[in-house]
Structures are given as C-alpha cells and as structure tokens.
Amino acid sequence: TAPSTNRWATAAIRRVLMALARDAEPEDMTARDTLEIVPLWNEARFVLVRTLDGTLLGEKYQLTNVSKSRMVIDERELYRRGVLAVMVESLELEPGEATQVMVVLEGRDG
After folding, report:
1. Cβ–Cβ contacts within 10 Å for residue 80, how many?
2. Distance (Å, rounded) from C-alpha 62 to C-alpha 25?
3. Could you tell me which of 16, 18, 60, 110 has the fewest CB atoms within 10 Å of its CB?
4. What is the phi-psi region of residue 82: left when phi exceeds 0, alpha when psi lies from -120 to 50, beta otherwise?
C-alpha cells in the first residue's frame, strides 16, 4: 500500500478510537448502545457497551476484574481476526476495578 493510504488508515483508526473514548457519533457512522456480555477470561467480566458502524467498525467494552488479585492486561490478548487497533484505558486493575477497552475492526468492505 502507498504511504498516503497508510496515513489515511492510521487517521481513520485514530478517529474511531477517539469517538469511542468520548462516546461521540461521527457523521458518517451509526452508534448503538448495548449491554452484551462477551466471554473473555474467568477473571474478567467483558461487556460490549457501544458500537460504531461505518467504513470501519468500532466496539467499546467495559472490562471488570472480578478476581481477588490484581490483573495486568496485555492489549495483544484482545486482538482477533479483523482487529486493526486496541486501546485499553488502564492496563492494571485491582480487584473490582474496571476499565474501558476500545477496538477498531475492518469494515464489511475490508
């Protein structure tokens, strides 16, 4: 890919991450609030709370440490097929603490 395409992709991904973090709805995307529990790890409750649908897809989760010990999150563990970027607000959680997780995925055309 050409460097200009990479710059566009990086800017587009950053834009979706920021919109998710701010609960904003870009003009060219459709936002949907939801509460969907997604199986992740036994030590965590992972709930999909918002999606953005457009050229790229955005997902915002709340991750809660439900264990009795401190949790250290590695963003790489949250990648799956089609994921372009992952942003975790706080990488270390004490028992009972929660953080926001933003995920950007390829759009349906990608």
Report:
1. 9
2. 18
3. 110
4. left
Report pTM. 0.88
Q: What is the pLDDT of residues 40-90, one digit of tens each?
A: 888 999 999 999 999 999 999 999 999 999 999 999 999 989 999 999 999
The owner of tokens 């991750």 is 63
Cα–Cα distance measured from residue 15 to residue 55, given in angstroms and rounded to the nearest whole number: 12
CA-closest candidate to residue 67, choices 86, 103, 92: 92
Provide the H-helix boundaries in the chain.
3-21
CB 61 within 8 A of CB 38: yes
Kindly state the tokens that stand for 64: 């809660």
Q: Say how many C-beta atoms besides its own lie within 10 A of residue 66's C-beta.
A: 15
Structure tokens at 98: 């929660």
- Per DSSP bridges, beta strands 98-105 and 57-65 are antiparallel
54 and 30 Cβ atoms separated by less than 8 Å: yes
